[in-house]
Amino acid sequence: MIEITSARTMSHDHAGEHLAKLAFMANQIGDFFKAYPEAEAVAAITDHINQFWTKRMREDFRTGFADDASALSPLVRQARDKVRPAPVA
Question: One Pfam family, short name please (predicted)?
């Protein structure tokens, strides 16, 4: 049996996977810096994301976890608020 899914469903699934990947990557960065003092860790996580993530990744990270950041570690949640937004064209 072949299951047919709508484009909307696939898009929603893709968006969820994308956010899950961003959370995974951000939490890995957070894990690296978790031995630092809290303020330094948050600054280092923020700096890493701002330097190495694309504008789209940063914007998806900021907006995708605005309402529910439970997938992010506490340090990464603090850093999320400091990540640079993508410039408006």
Answer: FdsD
Question: Domain limits at 46?
Answer: 42-89
Phi, psi of 86 (to 5 degrees): -70, 135
> Is the CB of residue 58 less than 8 Å from the CB of residue 48?
no
Domain count, the chain: 1
Profile the chain (89 residues) by mean pLDDT over runs of 10 residues: 38 84 98 98 98 95 96 98 81
Answering whether pTM is above 0.70, one says: yes
In a domain, 82, yes or no: yes
In a domain, 57, yes or no: yes
